[in-house]
């Protein structure tokens, strides 16, 4: 385990950002867990670099917590292996793995002070008193809690209590910190603030963090990479940008960006674009170049923030603005497309330039923002 103040090697995490790592790498290989007939996690595999912030994102019941609990050691996989650094921990008891945890419930000892709570893991490990005082002081300072050491948990706000829980996980510099919905009990403003703080601490210390959430925005803001989980499977494991701009399945496009979907068929590939004829309007749409043959039935996917209203005779289809809702900096509009089954397209446009209800508009998108999925994928 790396100790405070010890120089550590420089590494490059996914995304190319150099960091000084105190965290270790983690490898999950073909891990499976069933409960009777329910396959909670199905052959999950991932390689996580030292110093990387990885989030498990998915709807309720998709297998996020079960995967985290198998890494923690609280739940034994039916098969597969889990390695921390170069140590196989698959069958080790949780306390022998030495990992750090932060849960939604802060689980602080109410009768102990903040200092005693944070010191607890070091006390358990028999660290000398002076060393404990020094490390607890340093850790509280990192989390902006200097001066709070003498308080009891009940004398702190929810956000401060969660920071104490984070300090307790940080204080013995575990090779990996596991966080299960740690901000779930806090209001939005505090959650936003703590997201930034946790990310800053993680980067500064080069921690390896595995974070569970069902909040897409939280995952996009905090993560180097996100594993999108669905029915026990990892649907895609990628950077936030790749997931948002290059989703590999309609599920990921919808889960991360609430994408608009339109059915169509590939007409041809030009140098830069794949041209699609839309089923509904019969009009043509340019998508970025995909490796799909002419005639392939496809689902066209575009995020609401990546399509624009234009003059009614321009764009790849026309329609009537059915709703236009002002939401601060944005207007969310619903446009009922002409013809066929008259799909409703959702647009997000900067407030002040938004279309108004009843207006006839064309719809356009930059080809690079248009993703195509062969229809057999379930789109
Ligand atoms: N101890 C258990 N016994 C039986 N089934 C379980 C058990 N734990 C989890 N499951 C099932 O395994 C599946 C995955 O559950 P898991 O808790 O990992 O999902 P999750 O994505 O973390 O959901 P949530 O966001 O609601 O916590 C679900 O169908 C769940 O009902």
TrEMBL record:
Keyword Nucleotide-binding in annotation: yes
Keyword line: ATP-binding, Nucleotide-binding, Transport
Keyword ATP-binding in record: yes
Domain ABC transporter residues, every copy: 26-256
Gene Ontology MF term list: ABC-type quaternary ammonium compound transporting activity; ATP binding; ATP hydrolysis activity
GO CC terms, sorted: ATP-binding cassette (ABC) transporter complex
A Pfam cross-reference name: TOBE_2
InterPro entries for this protein: AAA+_ATPase, ABC_SmlMolc_Importer, ABC_transporter-like_ATP-bd, ABC_transporter-like_CS, Mo/tungstate-bd_C_term_dom, P-loop_NTPase, Transp-assoc_OB_typ2
Coiled coil, from the record: none
SMART domains, sorted: AAA
Organism: Streptomyces tuirus
Protein's UniProt name: ABC-type quaternary amine transporter
EC numbers: 7.6.2.9
């Amino acid at each position: 385990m790396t100790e405070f103040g010890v120089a550590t090697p420089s590494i490059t995490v996914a995304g190319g950002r150099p960091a000084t790592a105190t965290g270790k790498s983690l490898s999950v290989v073909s891990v499976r867990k069933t409960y009777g007939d329910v396959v909670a996690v199905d052959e999950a595999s991932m390689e996580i670099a030292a110093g990387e912030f990885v989030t498990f994102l998915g709807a309720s019941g998709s297998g996020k917590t079960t995967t985290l609990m198998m890494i923690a050691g609280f739940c034994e996989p039916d098969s597969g292996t889990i390695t921390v650094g170069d140590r196989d921990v698959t069958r080790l008891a949780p306390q022998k793995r030495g990992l750090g945890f932060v849960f939604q419930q802060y689980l602080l000892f109410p009768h102990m002070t903040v200092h005693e709570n944070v010191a607890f893991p070091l006390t358990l490990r028999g660290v000398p008193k002076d060393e404990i005082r020094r490390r607890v002081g340093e850790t509280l300072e990192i989390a902006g809690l200097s001066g709070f050491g003498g308080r009891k948990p009940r004398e702190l706000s929810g956000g401060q209590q969660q920071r104490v829980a984070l300090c307790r996980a940080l204080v013995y510099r575990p090779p990996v910190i596991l966080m299960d919905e740690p901000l779930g009990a806090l209001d939005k403003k505090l959650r936003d603030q703590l997201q930034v703080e946790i990310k800053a601490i993680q980067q500064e210390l080069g921690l390896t963090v595995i974070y569970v959430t069902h909040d897409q925005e939280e995952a996009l803001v905090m993560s180097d990479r996100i594993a999108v989980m669905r029915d026990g499977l990892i649907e895609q494991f990628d950077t936030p940008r790749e997931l948002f701009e290059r989703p590999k399945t309609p599920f990921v496009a919808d889960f991360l960006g609430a994408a608009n979907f339109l059915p169509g068929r590939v007409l041809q590939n030009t140098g830069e674009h794949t041209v699609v004829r839309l089923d509904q309007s019969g009009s043509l749409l340019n998508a970025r170049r995909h490796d799909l043959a002419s005639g392939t039935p496809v689902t066209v996917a575009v995020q609401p923030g990546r399509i624009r209203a234009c003059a009614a005779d321009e764009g790849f289809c026309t329609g009537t603005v059915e709703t236009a809702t002002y939401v601060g900096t944005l207007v969310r509009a619903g446009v009922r497309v002409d013809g066929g089954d008259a799909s409703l397209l959702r647009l997000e446009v900067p407030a002040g330039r938004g279309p108004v209800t009843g207006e006839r508009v064309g719809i356009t998108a930059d080809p690079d923002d248009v993703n195509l999925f062969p229809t057999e994928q379930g789109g």
